[in-house]
Amino acid sequence: xxxxxxxxxxxxxxxxxxxxxxxxxxxxxxxxxxxxxxxxxxxxxxxxxxxxxxxxxxxxxxxxxxxxxxxxxxxxxxxxxxxxxxxxxxxxxxxxxxxxxxxxxxxxxxxxxxxxxxxxxxxxxxxxxxxxxxxxxxxxxxxxxxxxxxxxxxxxxxxxxxxxxxxxxxxxxxxxxxxxxxxxxxxxxxxxxxxxxxxxxxxxxxxxxxxxxxxxxxxxxxxxxxxxxxxxxxxxxxxxxxxxxxxxxxxxxxxxxxxxxxxxxxxxxxxxxxxxxxxxxxxxxxxxxxxxxxxxxxxxxxxxxxxxxxxxxxxxxxxxxxxxxxxxxxxxxxxxxxxxxxxxxxxxxxxxxxxxxxxxxxxxxxxxxxxxxxxxxxxxxxxxxxxxxxxxxxxxxxxxxxxxxxxxxxxx
Length: 412
Fold this sequence. Notes:
The chain is of the alpha/beta class. Strand 5 (about 165), helix 8 and strand 6 form a beta-alpha-beta unit. Helix 2 packs antiparallel against helix 15, helix 4 packs across helix 6 (about 95-115) and helix 5 crosses helix 10. It is about 45% helix and about 15% strand. It has 15 helices and 13 strands. The protein is elongated, with a radius of gyration of 24 Å. The chain has a six-stranded mixed sheet, with helices on both faces.
């Protein structure tokens, strides 16, 4: 019993979880449609990310949670805090108030760090020069809800392992045009930014690559909605139909898939989106989206939906385009649209970061405070596990030294 009293509980529990979870290790990325492993791409963590593994892993996980998961985690954390204070109910009002303020401050600090703290980013890497990693949905400060310049967005995508990113601001293309003017030429010498725009069609959000660059008259005067007649006229020439991508589908079946050359309709659907309010819905409706895309022979895409916050991306769309590194930005944009138009469902694959399944049952959602950290630990590399142990016991040793010094000063 004396020995057990001397065992440091928190660092021991963390160490046990880090070690035991290695027996259940899984790849940190997977195919969003099949849920299987990805063969031609893999997660790469820079040295700084690995050394700061506890911070990196927890901040990434917090960034990638859905809205319901955030609520579940906060509810669980508050429940644990209340239980802890109930055990120490004799501590006195002052100590309870201090503990409550500390808990609230820690939660606010964690979310602020996840949103704003500059830190190394995990990226998707590939050994195949013909594989192109694309983000079809991102924003700059030209959007009403965006934060960050277009060049900031380019750097963010470079660190996340993208080759191409579509700048799809709401009802605006000014930032996208600036980004495209500064593109590396030929492609492959950095992140290529391409123009797109996010608008609405029949109440659903869509993006249209090159809507105001190659195609004209697709949108209403304020660029906020699709002009169906203009879309029909723009798609009159077979092989040049605009690519309409259905963002985070809300009402499945609200938009029709294109039925062939010269027809209007969606030609791609998002299956991964980084916005908390949409991430959970897409994960819950994953199978319906895959089935709809297969039946309509439309491509699956991912969108970081980045608005300038966080240093983690939920997924990447990968395409095989031989020789893309030697193409001009405009030629590359043309080729991407051509591959989607002709290849349909088979033209893309979506690689997704692994986070805990939000679930549909109340019990599974309530257990998020435990399931989310567990899934995070199962995705760690061996190097990350080592640094978790170093930080866990290093911080414990420092706390012990500080405690002894405080006692020494008290008895002096």
